[in-house]
Amino acid sequence: MSTLAADEANDIKQDLETVARLELGETPEVKQNSLIQLRQLLEEDDGFQVPPNDDLLLVFLRIRKYNVPEALERIRRYFRARKNMPEYFEEVTTSSALYETVFRKHKLIMYANERDQQGRVVSLTSCGAWNSDICSLPELFRCGLWAMECNLLEEETQIRGYVAVLDLKGFGSHHLMQATPRFLARLISITQDCLPVRLKGIYFLNTPAIFEVVYAIAKPFLSAKVKSRLHFIGSDLSQLCGVIPSELIPEEFGGTKNAFDNARQERLYKEKEGHFDRIRQCGYQTKSANCVS
């Protein structure tokens, strides 16, 4: 690495440490003490297999700004969800037919290679382009959840946060029939109450009138904080310029989406595949199960 590149990397690291300290209250001492406390509490939880390294515990401490009791409750919810709703947590691999269909062929889920102006990772899910001939709705959610978890393993995403963009162009009655109250309640419960994600904004694009029915069903399950971060945008996507990376905005609105390259994200997915093999051995298991490092 050149001296200039090394200096830039050091500046980014220092800036990230500043954000972590100011927004999360993270310092080396707070981090160390909180990890010790959280690990001790989890070890006292009968039947819970504690992750052997601190990386996963740290993600949950950051989402709760080092409030150890709240981090404990969030990690318990996460592993209960994995145990009770395994159909949403089954791993997707880059060699699977489902990945080929959702990510490569139809590009229903895309992550910007660049972060936004605040350093947050940005995803785009083309909900309106989905139909049951491509995959089931639970399978689409499973893909989105897996991709989100892969990105949450990045330290910068844990600290700076996550922005979701949902494109509803083409959303109609056939989508409405699939979005049952039970499914919506589960989707919201997992993403809002279980995952260790700093959700900084959700942008709905090309919102049709029929989507009001879905929102009316979902609204009672949403926290006040999440509702305050929802943004409904019509068909003029030029409003997004300067808000999200241009590669997720169509060319006709000043972006470069038509030239989107998924290569960097695919490398990230491949790098993180081993994480899911390890995490399956942790959490609420039979007493004979052991976590692996």
Automatic annotation (TrEMBL):
GO terms for cellular component: membrane. Gene3D superfamilies: Alpha-tocopherol transfer (1.20.5.1200), CRAL-TRIO lipid binding domain (3.40.525.10), N-terminal domain of phosphatidylinositol transfer protein sec14p (1.10.8.20). Residues 99-261 form the CRAL-TRIO domain. One of its GO terms (molecular function) is phosphatidylinositol bisphosphate binding. It comes from the Eukaryota. It holds the Pfam family CRAL_TRIO. This is Transporter. It comes from Rhipicephalus zambeziensis.
